[in-house]
Amino acid sequence: MRIVLFAAAAITLLGFAPATTQAAGDAVVLEQQEWSFDGPFGRFDRQQLQRGFQVYREICSSCHGLDYIAFRNLEAIGYSEDQTKVLASEYTIEECCDDQGDIFDRPAIPADYIPNPYPNEQFARASNNGALPPDLSLMTKARHGGPDYMYGLIIGYEDPPAEMEAEMMDGMYYNTVFEGNQIAMAQQLFDELIEYSDGTLATSEQMALDVSAFLHWAAEPKLEIRKQTGVRVLLFTFIFTVLAYFLKRRIWADVEH
């Protein structure tokens, strides 16, 4: 029966999460949002993921790459094959080489990975006052709090308190979530900065939620499959344990004690 208790405990832990989570190396407590993918049966909201990709594409992609996401992967968030082809064709890929041995540009195809906005790290740093914009493919896995951290970071811009004003370095911005409270990236999201294709009102909070959900999908594209597999394993373990228990009683029923 220990296995049954273990399975029940695992289901309980999967289904419930703490209301807050603490940012690594800091005393900041992140408010947990209600994500559609929370819990053992949670699933990504495809409409939200598409809105999040729109935010990334129109705002974030000018500085941040998605090195581990190919255009064809976007079919998993609800785009059709034809739509991914159209999306890919709007990007150019530097290819080597033609018949003369020269580098040339070609339209991207669904098999291509989403191009990085910078050709190399040195160019990226030179374009951002020495700061290197991180790739966002695995960002929610790289930060304690995952999508909650991303959301808190994006909306965490404020004027520095009086005691911090003298400590703020040139070119840095005050952020309540970022470790040390000084970040090189300026605030990026403002109300109605973009127009959502599905008609959703693009407030800064809504855009932050959507792009955080999209980036969590980018980091965990197999999340739903893993959850489904986990639930099946727990269910199988429970059924097997019950059958084993009754089999044991049947085998030992006639044994005198």
Structure description:
- The chain starts with a helix and ends in a 6-residue tail after the last helix.
- It has a domain at 2-67 and 137-231: Cytochrome Bc1 Complex, Chain D, domain 2 (Orthogonal Bundle), CATH 1.10.760.10.
- The strands form three sheets. It has a two-stranded antiparallel ribbon with strand order 1-2.
- Helix 2 packs across helix 8.
- The model is unreliable at 1-26 (pLDDT under 50).
- It has helices at residues 2-15, 46-58, 81-89, 121-126, 139-142, 147-154, 162-165, 204-219, 223-251; strands spanning 20-22, 29-31, 92-96, 103-107, 173-174, 182-183.
- The protein has 257 residues and is mainly alpha-helical.
- The chain has nine helices and six strands, in the order H-E-E-H-H-E-E-H-H-H-H-E-E-H-H.
